[in-house]
Structure formats: C-alpha cells, structure tokens
Design brief:
Length: 199
C-alpha cells in the first residue's frame, strides 16, 4: 500500500484511494480501524440526490495508493448519550420472564402450536401466563388444548368477566390460526396438521 500519512486517518479528513481493482474513491473519513486497516469514506451520492451519500469501505491492505487531500484536526470523540438503565433492566426482566414461561410450557408438555399461540398473544398483551397446559390471558380468558377457536372461554373464578376481552382474544386466536394455515400451505404442510397442533 502506498500512503502519504502514517496510516492514521482523522475523522473528517479528505482522502483519495485507489484500490487493487483500479477503482478510485475520494471522500471524507467517517471511520478508520488501524488494526484491520479498514477505512470508511463518505462521498456525494452517485445518484445526484443531495440528501444521500455514498459510503465506501476500503481495506487498505489491498489499496494501491492512499493520499490525504486535506487533514482534519484531531478532535475528541463525541460523547455518547447515556443509557436508560431502568428501561434496560425492565426489558431484561421481561425477556427472562418470557423465557421462563416458555420453559414451563415445554416442561409441561405443551404442543408446539400452543407455544406459538402463547408467543403470538404475548406480542400484543403482556398479562399472559400458563396454568398447566392452559393459556390464561389477563386473568379473564382461558385457552385450553388443542388451542383452537372453540377452546377459548371465560375464566369463571378470575377477574370480572368482560365480553370485549373474550371477543378480542378470539380474534387473536382466529388470526393466529389463519396465519399458521397460510404458512403451512406455502410450505406444503397440510392445513389439518396445523389446526390439530401436530406440526
């Protein structure tokens, strides 16, 4: 590699590179990793749109020539935004709880279709848990094996029954089975296998 500098490129410098394929790239240095000799350049978009840029990553090990056109002053790295630790902690706890619920389902012999339905409900409703092989949603609706639409009913001894909640959960279960049916048809699996949970 032919280089005018000591192989350290400051962010913001203008650099011109010729690769081993005789391609020439010129642009502003966005990043440089001296350990793997990877240079990232930003240049005006080849599409002509001023709101876009072309980004080129050049492995300097395979560059024929590198010329610094304009050296940028070394500046301290920008400060990174602080992390919201409470949000991260809540997200981690939720993820751990979800994994534990799935482990419980697998240990109690719940079918794969039941596990998939459980996950589908968890995407829209947080208050979902296993009670043996049954799925309990918001303490009000129970879905029992084989997890079909006719297996969705109100929980009698739970919270006060709410017809809207039951109808909403039924819509989720119905949509889940339609999606599973279309997936199985695309994959060549019979629809009956999906509906009976014997996948």
């Amino acid at each position: 590699m032919a280089a005018e500098s000591s192989e350290v490129f400051n962010i913001g410098s203008s650099v011109s590179c010729v690769t081993c394929f005789d391609e020439e790239f010129q642009g502003e240095v966005l990043a440089f990793d001296p350990h793997v000799k990877l240079l990232t350049l930003k240049s005006a978009s080849s599409s002509g749109r001023t709101s876009l840029y072309d980004i080129h990553m050049v492995n300097l090990t395979y560059a024929k020539a590198v010329h610094v056109l304009r050296e940028a002053a070394a500046s301290p790295l920008p400060t990174l935004p602080s992390l919201n630790l409470s949000k991260l902690s809540t997200r981690a706890k939720r993820s751990i709880d979800e994994k534990q619920r799935l482990i419980e389902a697998m240990q109690s012999g719940v079918s794969p279709i039941g596990q998939k339905l459980f996950l589908a409900i968890c995407k829209t409703i947080e208050e979902v848990k296993w009670t043996g092989p049954n799925i309990l949603v918001m303490g009000q609706v129970v879905i029992s094996p084989p997890y079909l639409l006719e297996n969705v009913r109100e929980q009698k001894e739970g919270k006060e029954a709410n017809g809207k909640t039951l109808s909403y959960i039924k819509k989720i279960v119905e949509k889940f089975h339609k999606d599973q049916q279309s997936i199985s048809l695309n994959n060549g699996t019979g629809a009956a296998e999906v509906l009976t949970g014997t996948q």
